Amino acid sequence: MGKQVDVALQGPSEYAELVRAGKLKFISSASDFRLPWFPNTPTIKEQGYDIGIAGIIGIAAPKGIPADIKAKLEAAVNKVASSKEYNDFLVDQYGIKGYPASAAEFGKLIDDGFVKMRKMIDDHNIKM
What are the boundaries of each domain within the chain? Predict the structure, then answer.
């Protein structure tokens, strides 16, 4: 808006009102899916670039947590994360979708994310 930044990568709740007011142009979702608030705007990948990233929300526990406690915590988190109420909340408040995952799947998302980001940084010659 002030002609100081050409592009930014942020969560939908941070820019949606500016887009709706016509003050900012939303050109693409960086995640692998279209955003609920902007379903007609294609992803970067749909526009021909092999880029897809997503923020993840999760619960972490200390390494070595007893298996029975881990199982109870995982069941409780999955119950909430899978609920219609929680997913409606994510869309209504933040313009994002929920993707419930097991503890193993969540850990893999984090590990894979580091590898994916490193590759994107290298492939696109992004300077630190």
Answer: 1-54, 56-128
